[in-house]
## 1
Amino acid sequence: MIIVLKPNATEEQAKEILSRIESAGLKPLYMPGVERIVLGALGDERVLQQLHLDAYPCVENVKPILTKYKMVSREVQAHDTVVRFGNAAVGGNKFAVIAGPCSVESEAQLMAVAEVVKQHGAVALRGGAYKPRTSPYDFQGMGVEGLKLLHKANQQLGLPTVSEVMEVGQVDTMCEYVDCLQIGARNMQNYALLKAVGESKKPVLLKRGLSATIEELLLAAEYIYDAGNPNIILCERGIRTYETATRNTLDLNAVAYLKQRTHLPVVVDPSHGTGVRELVIPLSRAAAAVGADGIIVESHLNPCEALSDGHQALTGPMFEQLMQELKPFVEAAGRTL
Amino acid sequence: MIIVLKPNATEEQAKEILSRIESAGLKPLYMPGVERIVLGALGDERVLQQLHLDAYPCVENVKPILTKYKMVSREVQAHDTVVRFGNAAVGGNKFAVIAGPCSVESEAQLMAVAEVVKQHGAVALRGGAYKPRTSPYDFQGMGVEGLKLLHKANQQLGLPTVSEVMEVGQVDTMCEYVDCLQIGARNMQNYALLKAVGESKKPVLLKRGLSATIEELLLAAEYIYDAGNPNIILCERGIRTYETATRNTLDLNAVAYLKQRTHLPVVVDPSHGTGVRELVIPLSRAAAAVGADGIIVESHLNPCEALSDGHQALTGPMFEQLMQELKPFVEAAGRTL
Amino acid sequence: MIIVLKPNATEEQAKEILSRIESAGLKPLYMPGVERIVLGALGDERVLQQLHLDAYPCVENVKPILTKYKMVSREVQAHDTVVRFGNAAVGGNKFAVIAGPCSVESEAQLMAVAEVVKQHGAVALRGGAYKPRTSPYDFQGMGVEGLKLLHKANQQLGLPTVSEVMEVGQVDTMCEYVDCLQIGARNMQNYALLKAVGESKKPVLLKRGLSATIEELLLAAEYIYDAGNPNIILCERGIRTYETATRNTLDLNAVAYLKQRTHLPVVVDPSHGTGVRELVIPLSRAAAAVGADGIIVESHLNPCEALSDGHQALTGPMFEQLMQELKPFVEAAGRTL
Amino acid sequence: MIIVLKPNATEEQAKEILSRIESAGLKPLYMPGVERIVLGALGDERVLQQLHLDAYPCVENVKPILTKYKMVSREVQAHDTVVRFGNAAVGGNKFAVIAGPCSVESEAQLMAVAEVVKQHGAVALRGGAYKPRTSPYDFQGMGVEGLKLLHKANQQLGLPTVSEVMEVGQVDTMCEYVDCLQIGARNMQNYALLKAVGESKKPVLLKRGLSATIEELLLAAEYIYDAGNPNIILCERGIRTYETATRNTLDLNAVAYLKQRTHLPVVVDPSHGTGVRELVIPLSRAAAAVGADGIIVESHLNPCEALSDGHQALTGPMFEQLMQELKPFVEAAGRTL
């Protein structure tokens, strides 16, 4: 950790901080410059952060050297983690396509789309039973009835399921009915929920928050890991920027960056990442090319009747086209579909 | 609602949508232009949103005319709402200063700072017992022991308290010990929590999410209102932008805009809004000038020992200076301190 | 164009605006709703924008129906434009790789890297002679001497050149020595410069501004087109967001979106788009997969000695690796390298 | 400067960098940590930046200690700079109000509004003769005829003028007719233009770029200063964020921050900063409260007829109201109006 003092800071003030660093069991460094005094502290930065040296009035700023996340880092585990649920595996040689409707709306709707996506190669079924909606007047999901339908779909088709959990009180019920718990973008920093899914040990698909940094995403994963659950799939789903032509800005830089820094698998959500049906296929191709371990994509056999996000859902024929177009890119990336 | 069709859309496709609008009990409008067909739908847009017309492949985009929020709007209630808890009132003639430490750390720490802020004119005491922290390795708060200390501080000093609630399971306990429930920025779209505090009827201080639009903030308030609780204080606390010199970008445009659109009181958090101790006083002055109903500010008698956010906390003398500097600006705004 | 009036607007005010629309030769529409009066104006929106209806106090907002750009749109020209300079073509079946150093630094440096990139398949050479630098104390480029070296490189290797023009006064000299004029991100809305390169008729590589919307990029291209020059290559080079792990956020959504809306070719700059050498190859692969017409990439045989942007430059062996890795993705996209 | 090496960096690699630091005449520091080797370099960082140490493959990142700007910093000059043009002074005890139309449209329009703003206390007249417009089809300004009208207004009313210069070729003509040259947001990093206005020695009003950091704004000012012109007024005019309710997000944090770091005067543009007429007055009050040295505001006697930006222009009566409302806040800030 590097501590830069203000221009008018005195040697005495520097010494006070240095002795505080030393008393915490770390090695202090004194670097008097021409325009500034700079201090260093060598050792475990997680201890140093407890010192809150940035609170000293004579401190201009504190520059950490190490990242705050640890267990999810490649420095702790060099090889890739593969997360398995049902007969799906994310993070291995197979590029995993998870597909299904935004919301579970009825048995007929769910079964029909589940069959189509399975037929064309999806390895898991997505579908929301509890829906986080910006407005209280929007459709809020079928709740536990939706979960039961997902369970039924899995039993009939052998397609493991992913569904969003919105609060601590839902975790147990969710674990009963679905195979992988999704933490939505709005809940990425809902720490009580992170701890709860961490304790559940169920595989977790953790979506990046709307304006979360890559480091914050990794720290959210670290919460789950720290609570005892290493089965974490990270999901890039677009970030909020000034651009309004697309719903979000899909950050594929983040995918390549994450693959270098963490051993956890990374999937991409091109449906929310673009918010535009016509852009889903090209961005899915790009996801495969950049090195993602899979995609999670919205599909609805009749988008005009969808109760949510119909504008970004792929129809059945479009889903088939997606899988055909993906194939050569997945193979170019050295994987199978 | 205005529906713009794609350039190649046919009259037939337009008619299908028009008949759907009509069957929903709304008045359809057909506007064939030179380059595009444009459709209109007059009536309650909240019904229209259920139609999901943007999911039609022939639709380029849908432009809503009305806002989605309703009960929190000045169109429904023209006069200002005043939210009262203990002997504090936010939204009236008095500019409300809520102050206290980021975290409750000990009885001695809390009582000492509470006395100082009360002496200089604070009307309520803030302090976190449950702390949302980016890293699992950071101090997570004293929990219920912290709540008890807040309660004690109120009993001894007559200073009502504001503290953050982080999950549904905490709401009942929080209601027992504190006077106003804070929803933090990370939880602004934690809808289960919004509903729970809505049902509790306790006054709520709702912070704007890190990258929430003004409309999303009002819709989050609408969730609480819709659940039966009109006692809502909105809080602008800075948004996330590309600028790194300050922790966040305090959006005072939003305060002026909100005061025109909603009857709910609006306070400003210059501590998180800037993240820099030296900027807290000038931005507090600006908050008073722009028309805010108060501020919520972090203060700690010994910031260098603070367990969180010491770098942005005002010392005792700085808090006194804040109140002195605020006075003429509050009066210029036609209020009292 | 749709004009939404404020809640308290009167019928009289509406009539005033309607008559203004009519007198401009457009067809006015009156749509009285339950909560708002909405007006429409059918016809050429470019005329309507001259009316500045949003300036009326009774107007809440104005929603344009049509885009402001026209000549660069696929609605005017459905087929792809191919931009040619020297023996390079951008926009056709061949995926164009433009490569070279950030800055021209010396004859030896330029020739060495030019030979390497040509050998491995680059179709054009990039290199800055005039450098826009954030600080006045940074290296500002070799100027006209740099241009002469680019010219020499082209003569010796048959590799056409791309270089940045920073001001109107440089256009003539640039045209003499280089084959394609680059407009940098900081100058995307330097309208005098856009007009000047438009009048020059030279091929132009137009970079998206640091925080320019897609529509603003297309309007900047429209300036060049409108000045008489249809030879425009658009370049996505990353936008500024809150994320700091990468220098910029490469917006591949924009590439897919642009390919649908404009007939102009689109290339990607993964060097500036990431700012991290290790991310250049994966994002180049993604650019090919998303449908870009090529990439423009920085390469330097000895990045540690580079006078600018060495941290994002590919070494010779890395450039070779880039071309090898690109090949299957380019082919999967139905193109050749 | 602090240089953090990658986890797998060797001592040998560290030594190579240390010797490079030493050979540049600086003092190297070697700090081997548990997880990383960290290097330091003490001395003039502007020399260090020429070393481009971030280009070394073994370097993870480089953290500068000192800011890159120097001459505009309070560390070089502690006292406030006052910029004078005509009988206007910006940066002193008087809060400077600069007002006028977005565009000069005609003699009648300009004279009428100039008289009104002068009568109510404006110290300078703004008005655009060359207009940077997003679309080539929008009104581009009256050009030199507009400049002549500004000159005439100054002669008749004794009101010095501010007008935007858009390219190097206009600088001489502008200097002939107007008293203060405005660099617009889109040109903040048009370095050729910065150097040209620097050489002209005329007072410059430098607007912050749409997504420029505070440091980039100060470096743009440093360009002008470095070219020999210390007469620089900085202008905060709103930054681009994800929020769409307002045209830009006015960053008053930046104003308070700038006043602490630079001796240059800082004014606020609440017209572009909000883009909404109704928000101009509250944000002007906030600008005075936060410590700005003045405001630059758009006013038009008949906004509905304005050729540009009518939606954010104050009418005559609103301008009068602005001045009345400003007064107590300016006085609370210890200044006069």
Note: The interface with chain D takes residues 211, 213-215, 238-239, 241-246, 248-257, 259-260, 273-274, 276, 278-279, 282-283, 285-291, 328-329, 331-333 of chain B (CB under 8 Å).
## 2
Amino acid sequence: MTGKPEDSLIAMRTMRMAKILGENVRKTRLKRGMTLEALATEVGLAYSYMGGIERGQKNPTLDVVERIASALDIEPVSLLSRPEE
Amino acid sequence: MTGKPEDSLIAMRTMRMAKILGENVRKTRLKRGMTLEALATEVGLAYSYMGGIERGQKNPTLDVVERIASALDIEPVSLLSRPEE
């Protein structure tokens, strides 16, 4: 990570929400007994992109977060809350 | 809103998170005594785009939500929680 120190700080923070989202999506999906493929299809996303979201490697928009929440029948903000919260 | 009924439903739901974000950003910004211009500059967004976010008319990515939260010194998920939560 070249660039200013605070870039990596921001990058690290940026990863935080994406990581939290990924863990929550995966946990909820498995709880619902859904495959990654089924969730991707229902949300209207490519399988690979959906996998990237679960690995915390994507930067989705609020609209995508809401569509995933709707497919998992959960409140969108719950997908963005740290598990212990 | 032409198209299938559920499109408007999804559109309505999609607006929800954007609306919640906008209200929370505006309320927190005013509490911090920041101008819209100052917030836009700190986050690195155009003034007009920042105004659109506050009006709930934009569909930002998680990265943008985190940068706004960082500028307002608040947890990102708090900006996405309904005010009474």
Note: Chain A touches chain B through 22 residues (CB under 8 Å).
